[in-house]
UniProtKB/TrEMBL annotation:
InterPro entries: PA4642-like. It comes from Alcanivorax xiamenensis. This is Aminopeptidase. NCBIfam families: gamma_NF038106.
Length: 97
């Protein structure tokens, strides 16, 4: 999985709950942790406000905000290597990530 240097600003209309919940069903690549996969995909695609809503649905399903990639890193550990994403890190930390 290629890593980005920073989080680009996403501008647009807020997403509906149904649109956000679609991220919960994204299938992982073979051998990839399913929870980590959807966390990364949501982080990359959603505005911070929508990412926070996504995390509420994610936790409600009993999923793991501390899921790890194939190198044993949590999403917060991966995000700390990027720039300009403190808001995303704070949201994920509040969710237990």
């Amino acid at each position: 999985m290629a890593e980005r240097k920073d989080k680009r600003k996403v501008i647009g209309e807020p997403m509906t709950d149904e649109q956000i919940k679609l991220f919960l069903d994204l299938p992982p690549e073979e051998g990839e942790n399913a929870d980590f996969h959807v966390l990364v995909r949501a982080y990359r695609a959603l505005r911070v406000e929508d990412f926070e809503r996504f995390l509420a649905f994610f936790i409600e399903q009993g999923r793991d905000p501390r899921a790890q990639d194939d190198k044993g890193r949590t999403l917060i550990e991966v995000m700390r290597g990027h720039g300009k994403n403190d808001d995303y890190i704070a949201v994920l930390e509040r969710a237990g990530g």
